[in-house]
Design brief:
Blueprint: E1 10-16, H1 23-31, E2 35-36, E3 45-50, E4 55-61, H2 65-77
């Protein structure tokens, strides 16, 4: 979001089908350096982290309302 003061972290939200990710996809992300954290406190999400707080990858079922809510919030701030 241009011009907003924020922590130096990139949050990426992805809606997928089918959900949850197959173990091969999880291993593929781990091979890219991401650490798999499971739901990490948010039911219905698969969470990955790269670096201490460089990149956060949030993966949901494409039909999960959280995906839409994140995008609406982002657009509101823009």
């Amino acid at each position: 979001i241009p011009g907003i003061m924020a922590k130096p972290c990139v949050d990426i939200v992805i809606g997928v089908h089918p959900f949850p990710l197959e173990p091969d996809f999880i291993r593929g992300l781990e091979n890219l350096g991401y650490t798999y954290r499971g739901e990490n406190g948010i039911p219905g999400r698969q969470y990955f982290q790269l670096g201490p707080h460089d990149f956060h990858l949030h993966i949901y079922d494409i039909s999960n309302d959280d995906v839409y809510d994140y995008l609406v919030f982002r657009d509101y701030l823009r």
